[in-house]
Amino acid sequence: MASIDNTDHEKSAGPQGQAGDEAEVRAATEAALLDAFGGILGMVETTVPGLIFVVIYTVNHDIKSSALAALGLSVVLGVVRLARRDTLKHAFSGVFGIAFGALFAMMSGNAKNFYLPGMLYTLGLGVAYVVSALAGFPLLGLILGPVFKENLSWRTRNPGRLRAYTKASWAWGLILLAKSAILFPLYWWGNATQLGWVKVALGIPPFLLSVYLTWIFLVKAPAPIDVIAEMEAAEQERKAEKERAKADETSAGQTVK
């Protein structure tokens, strides 16, 4: 009877345990995506400075004042990042991108060049995602692997996550390339105001779609292998073996005496 009761208890607890594991995976995936891509503030950093630029330029058609206003806002957002003790990557990447665009626009005298560095980055990133997925070494796995503490274990030990990272990298690549296919014709044949407003409109929705698809692929994938925990456990085991060996030597010495 005892064995039957234990079996019944395990069966009843099983679905609850599985649901708990799924909830943990979902929570860990959400946290990892927010950490890797900068969260809500990251979306603000990539969209609002460009919005400030196009609004001011639409009003006064002055490249310098528009660029400096966008750069000033970007610096403020970077300071907010530092005050919140976010990673330096998130704090400075937006500032450098806006600074480069502002400098390029003012030096060239062409307001459209404010957006060109970001457009080239988007195009290059889209190509990198696609090429890495084709090569079997998806870029998204390289980005998120350390965040999940799985490093590269997804590539050799966890084929389900390799497939998920490959699908997600394809999604990011195709979405970014589609965005580039809209923006570059405007850069060549449109005016700065048209390009600015379209770029602002295409700032957040493609990003959210990419993040959502990534989340869908990863929550359905096997759980990550925590190689950091494995390394720590192995190190603890080595220390325990040394302590046991030392204890055996001490015991053997006392026996001889």
Automatic annotation (TrEMBL):
Residues 1-21 are annotated as: Disordered. InterPro entries: UCP010219. Keywords: Membrane, Transmembrane, Transmembrane helix. Residues 1-12 have a biased composition (Basic and acidic residues). The keyword Protein transport does not apply. The chain crosses the membrane at residues 36-59, 65-83, 90-107, 127-148, 169-190, 196-218. It holds the Pfam family DUF3159. Coiled coil: none annotated. Signal peptide: none annotated. It comes from the Bacteria. This is DUF3159 domain-containing protein.
